[in-house]
Amino acid sequence: MTIAREVAEAALRAASEEQAEAVVLTERSGLARFAASEVHQPTLIENVVVSLRVVRDGRVGSAQTNRLDDDGLADLARRAVEAAESTRAEPGFPGLPPPEPLPGVAGYDEATAGLDPGDLAGIARTAIDAAEPAPVYGFVTSGATEVAVVSTTGVAAEQRLTDATALIVAADEGASGYAQQTAWALDAIDPAAVAREAAAKMARTRDATTIEPGHYRAVLEPYAIGELLQHFAYDAFGALGLIEQRSFLAGRIGAKVFDERISIADDALDPAGLPKAFDFEGVPKQRVCLIEDGVARGVVWDRETAAHAGGDTRSTGHAPPMLSRVYGPLPFALTVAPGDAGSVEELAELVGEGIYVTRLHYLGTVGARDGVITGMTRDGTFRIRGGKIAEPLANLRFTVSVPEMLHEVPGLTRRIALLNQNDFYGERYPFGVLAPALATARFTISGVGSSPGI
Fold it and tell me: Which helix (H) or strand (E) holds 390?
């Protein structure tokens, strides 16, 4: 039995309610930062967060704590009951879920769980040495997380997770390059290779030029397409957005919305990602087909949105933490099906003339219903000329409609990469996007920012 489950059962006993549910998330994580090729601030975080939900006559109340002694758990129960008593009954509340068989998943590595900040500092030094003489910035992190859900209905779900990430920016005056690797086991990533990739990208970004705003054909690396799709998914692929008619998929289920080369699923069971067996209600995770050969097939559901929809709709195992359910169920295990291209250079040949984008930042939603997102390119933007990746470009402001961007996709790479998101509403709950690099016929540049580098 995990520590998380032991704490969850203690919280449930403290509640002494007919209908109650305890969720516990534990974290032991290390981080070694580095700047200008010097390691600093190795840290270790150990934390336990307990959430309790109680139901009284259809009224639902919840509270949270990280005090694990008897007094702390008793106070947690008191506050959850007070929250239930002070709110209105929820007519559509489906009740706490019954227990269901859970799938077996990968996602835990003992060696990764045992890393300490000293180990991570040594790994960081290996990456720094591999990038010389390029100055590098970034971090190496690893974590072990336990999740447990226990309820009066008989749910008793628990899982241990690990994750490790090396994220590196090589940067100097007027030049910068980026690379990242993530996996649930440290031996699946190569921090030295990440550093070399970032340094090589930096070396190509000196003396950046500018381009005029306009529509361009483009190649987006997995870092860029993963970030863009996760941002788009917050509104597009969740059931609450569909119900409230603010999702791009509202009224389009069953219709062709993207290029037929595009297939997207939410698959928390995939061992290539950061696997999960159940959601924050203890409901089993399911693979959900969102887009199939360009056709919209569905969204992710939790029990509340499924009850609202009625009919045969059921939860797909996507309930978020109980204190964040105002956002509804969201996809946090996106997987984009790969294509046939062997490299980004092959994608550049398909584009012919256009731009090449390594990564994005400062993303913001302009229009959720139309999937319009704005932001900046960063750490490796180039012109594509004659099918070749050519001269570097300054950081660019983009404003794209994701559906328009995915309307015509000349190709995708066979190789996919995992883009790590890691934190979930401020707590370590590792998740990410599995994506290939992608070529698009339309990527809209709306302005020019600064040159690369520091």
Answer: strand 388-392
